[in-house]
Amino acid sequence: MSGRLVSALVVVSLMLVFSAQVALAQMSDTPNLSINGFGTVGVVHSDEDQADFASNILVPKGAGYTRDWSAEVDSRLGLQLTANLTPRLSSVVQVISEQRYDGTYKPEVEWANVKFDVTPDLSVRVGRMVQSTFMSSEYRKVGYATPWVRPPLEVYRMMPVTNFDGVDVSHRSRFGEFTHTLRGTYGKADARYQGGGTAEARKAMGLSSTLEWGATTLFASYGQYRLTIEELNPFFDYFRLYGPEGEAIADRYDIDDKRFDVISLGARYDPGDWFVMGEWARSDSRSLTGDLRGWHVTSGYRMGAVTPYVTVARASVSSNLSDPGLSVGEWWPPAAELNEVLNHLLETSARQNSLSLGARWDFARNMALTAQYDHIDIDSGSQGILINHQSGFEPGGTVNLFSLALDFVF
Amino acid sequence: MRLTSSILGLLLSLMVGIASAEVVVVVSVQNPVEALSQAELRDIYLGRMNRLPNGSAVTPLDQREGSAAHRTFYREYMAQTPAQIKAHWSRLIFTGRGQPPRSVADDSAMADAVAASPVALGYLDSAYLDSAQVGDRLRVVAID
Hints:
The complex is a heterodimer. Chain A is an alpha+beta fold. Chain A is about 15% helix and about 50% strand. Chain A has one domain: Porin (Beta Barrel). Chain A starts with a helix and ends with a strand. Chain B has one domain: D-Maltodextrin-Binding Protein, domain 2.
């Protein structure tokens, strides 16, 4: 991540926060500085001991292979400073500590921006923000704010990186009882992943629309970005050694400045005693990642402080799961090996159905305890949404998870 | 027997007392607003709306979380539990989109805060409104 830019953002935001503190002392009737926090203490058990279940594919450790019961999948702590410098200028700095790509918990800056309200309905933010790719993306790490232990990975895995550095324009309009929020974003993001490699997203733009009407929320978004994963290039360079045919294969599957298009639709109806929500998303790219599809439907019923819920979800790939590869592979072993690796990567892509049953118990003013059981049915040939596959892992099959999470806000 | 029935009577009157505790929405008499729809009230308290239909600014005020007025207001007017409201504000706070309404200690603090500001909107126990003679400073807003 461009360290210097991030530090500059944090410094500017903190300066605003502290100058707001001075302003606060002068005009005591408006709360200008707020400190808030959120967190989750969670454990997960997986019955698949030849691979790990993780809530983010970028991290090295999860439940199953690394640990029978893992506290590293969902646990995190977030702290936020919000400063309202003037009625139109505000700043937010949010730092989160959770399992990182290197297995440590070194805090990272999730939000650090300065927001200016051009009018009461139009605001511009500059700095680090979180993308609104899916309906719950912006607060997906705040366990207390969502019904689940974690957002359904069948949809949310498509965007493992949450934040970006850039600008964001948000416009709110109201007609009758409808409130419409249109958000446009532009920027870039770098994500380190387990093993130390980096995925770089450039020219990332997004447009999202949220329509709220009483108990109903409708969401739609479109995003586009160019992704580069340098670490994959040497593999495709081998293909390029085989002339035009190899070049074509490499160009088709490499992830070197490849354009990704992401579309997502969502709806929620929450009249109070119960709720139902659903999301559908697709991510298309002419790359090894392929064309991903995902959806989930979640419904819950509130019985006093306890909310039982059920989620059904599906992840699939609509692009090809195999490729004829290099024709010389029929008699030339090195080419056959390249073909085999390519086909293995295509075939094992994440395709699965899952059924989740859970219950959230709002037992205290700022805390909720959620228990969730997930039954994951992996498509034949696929490795599912798992990491750290061991040699004893057999594609297909089922995985059962049991998760317990204590979510809090303050 | 007599003891039992008087305990029962006491419980009954307590229950009736709880059930009849009514919360009313108020503004300062300087504020021209006389009525709001339930949808408008809900959107103001959920942070979706910061201006009244007539275009003037509005600042909602809350009672302390855990107080009877807070619980009753959100149940009667918003059909939401305090936990649902807290989850709602968590979604706004941690995305930099807003802070919940400022909260005041009790009915009397609410009456003072609302009376002092022509843009404030608040709620309090109707019994307090009748007993404390704050009627000349506050107006009850009809919610339909």
